[in-house]
Amino acid sequence: MYRIGSNSLQLTRWFAAVLLPMLIASHVPAQSGRRAPKTIPSSNTNPTSETSEAPKPVTVLAKNVKLIIGQQPTSKRFAAEASIFASFIKRLNEYAGIRGTSVGDLRRNDAVRRARAETEALVVLMQFDIDSYQEGTILLNSRDLIVEYVVFAPQTGKEKTKGKVYYQEVGGGRLRKSEWPTGTPIRITTEAAGIEAAEQLYAWIAVLVGLKLARRPE
Known about the structure:
Layout: H1 6-27, H2 47-51, E1 57-61, E2 65-72, H3 79-93, E3 98-105, H4 108-117, E4 122-130, E5 133-134, E6 137-138, E7 145-152, E8 159-167, E9 186-187, H5 190-209, E10 211-215
Parallel strand pairs: 2-3, 2-4, 8-9
Antiparallel strand pairs: 1-10, 4-7, 5-6, 7-8
Helix pairs in contact: 3-5
């Protein structure tokens, strides 16, 4: 049995009290009641730009088309006629590649002559007739309309195409029955009648000049 002297005993106690905890601390990771949050690396990537879809391509006319548009009103000159004509021109000008210009009242013979004098522009004549004979019944004082457009070719003045829409005033007799999509469409507002005629004409123009892909503006 070895006996430790007083100096050795003091050294042993000092080692146990000071050095031993330091040695233990150097090998054991520090712990606390709350862990430090993990550091998330910053990123300059905008998630919105990554997830947003690229602009979808749309079809437009392969070449620009100029239209000279006139109207042949009825003798009654109903307010609905002017409204339908304005809606017709407005809708056509909303299509990319179409520029329609109104020349006011125009008779068919005048429209043909105007087309012959043009080098590129198509001449469009919108004709109005009172729809007074419906389903075998004659309607007195009818305010319903037959709206027909005719397209004349430049230089030759030949008729290229035509289309028709029925306009029935809201609250009218409404005798005519719709046969859409196989027959002539019937519209009960002036705006809808003008838009319908314009969309029919645009579909024909698209076949005439062709379509191409164009990217939507960002």
